[in-house]
Write a structure and sequence with these properties.
4-stranded antiparallel β-sheet; 277 residues; elongated; alpha/beta
């Protein structure tokens, strides 16, 4: 087993010495500008608190956990692949962002049922012109740091990508085309005469549906559970993440960090390449 330490800035020798001592590392190897691999380590409970205090991301990784051994990466969209919660930004067009954001936050912490929270939030959007969706995509939607580097590496390795979101197909279909994602699924907003009706068409794509799409896609590709990586940030990602061989909590809520295989609290999505490189 080895310990991967990464950061957004150069890591001091004193920090590396402390971590090497805690984990009884045989040697320390620099593998990137802000990334080090500590070899032949023993997990130690103090590593987590030390890294969080000093804004370092870490992972105890087995020697056989290499990126090229995986066949599918499943990603949440809002606040994982992209930096915004789309529904909050849509609501801002109605002057309702605080009300909708409060419901979003409660749902992501796992305090209220996701499907119910989505229906409540979408209902507040009734009457909004559909052009507001395009404005959100054009003006506010941004990829999270490292997204393009991560996706390019996955494509080079032949690893398939699935974007599965409790958000909306308006955004997932555009991101799928733009980024060359292999699969994408989300909820569909009902629009009549150019206006949002405040309803979602069909069943809500919730936490269980995310997990189901992971399993369905995995089986279609003929993969084993240990060949799947899932990435998310909110409570509605936990069932999906629980079906993956490795789960990554990306700048996530505490409930998600506590259950994930690894957490990226500071680095970008390309931290996956350092972790399993």
């Amino acid at each position: 087993m080895h310990l991967v330490i990464q950061s957004l800035s150069e890591i001091s020798a004193a920090y590396l010495d402390r971590l090497a001592g805690l984990a009884l590392a045989s040697r320390v190897e620099q593998v990137g500008p802000c990334c080090y691999r500590l070899h032949e380590v023993t997990p130690h409970d103090e590593v987590a608190s030390f890294c969080y205090e000093h804004k370092l991301d870490y992972g105890f990784v087995r020697d056989d956990q290499k990126l090229e051994g995986f066949g599918l990466v499943v990603m949440d969209m809002d606040s994982t692949l992209i930096s915004i919660e789309c529904i909050d930004e849509i609501a801002d067009m109605q002057g309702l962002k605080p009300q909708v954001s409060a419901i979003t936050e409660s749902a992501m912490r796992g305090e209220i049922d996701f499907a119910e929270s989505l229906r409540r939030r979408v209902a507040l959007l009734e009457g909004l012109d559909e052009h507001a969706l395009q404005r959100v995509y054009d003006e506010r939607l941004r990829l999270n740091p490292g997204a393009e580097a991560m996706l390019a590496a996955l494509k080079q390795l032949g690893i398939k990508t699935l974007l599965v979101s409790g958000g909306f197909t308006f955004f997932t279909t555009r991101l799928q085309a733009r980024l060359g994602l292999d699969f994408a699924h989300a909820n569909t907003l009902e629009i009549v005469n150019g206006k949002l009706t405040g309803r979602v068409l069909g069943a809500v794509l919730d936490a269980q549906a995310k997990a189901d799409w992971l399993l369905r896609t995995r089986d279609e590709l003929g993969l084993r559970p240990h060949q799947v990586i899932a990435m998310g940030d909110g409570a509605n990602d936990l069932k999906m993440m629980g079906q993956a061989g490795i789960s990554i909590a990306y700048h996530a809520k505490p409930i998600v960090r506590s259950q994930a295989s690894f957490s990226f609290n500071f680095v970008g999505l390309d931290g996956l390449l350092n972790l399993l490189g």
